[in-house]
Design a protein that fits this description.
Length: 137
């Protein structure tokens, strides 16, 4: 799959709440990085297994209802895209609306994600939006 195809499949899996399927998009040794991760949150995940573990509790915190906006920018490297994504949903614990913008730099090789840098802002995060991965609270 191309980077755009993987992103599209990833958004479909996110909306279907299939986080195991989402993690399967990673190469066995692919990484996921969070350059703006606050203290106590992981800054880097190494390998599909760590990505899967991290995402295992995601749907206990967030119920993503739709991708409100998405723009994909192709770079000069055909294996790399930059995606601007805005999602709308609900915080599972409170029922309050959840809206967040993400900018992700995604690198794909041989049909799998080998690098995913997720630039999201932790500003405005509360106990109800705390997601440090792996289903931990």
């Amino acid at each position: 799959m191309t980077p755009r195809e993987l992103l599209s499949k990833g958004m479909d899996l996110l909306l279907a709440k299939d986080m195991a399927g989402f993690a399967d998009l990673w190469a066995a040794d692919g990484t996921m990085e969070f350059p703006f991760a606050p203290p106590g949150w992981p800054a880097r995940l190494d390998g599909r297994a760590e990505v899967r573990d991290y995402l295992s509790g995601y749907t206990d915190v967030y119920d993503i209802k739709r991708v409100a906006e998405q723009a994909v920018h192709q770079t000069t490297d055909p294996e790399v895209i930059i995606a601007e994504i805005e999602v709308d949903g609900v915080l599972v614990r409170t029922g309050e609306p959840y809206q967040r913008r993400y900018i992700s730099v995604i690198t794909v090789r041989d049909g799998h994600i080998i690098g995913y840098r997720d630039y999201w802002s932790p500003l405005g995060m509360t106990a109800d939006t705390d997601f440090t991965g792996g289903g931990r609270e």
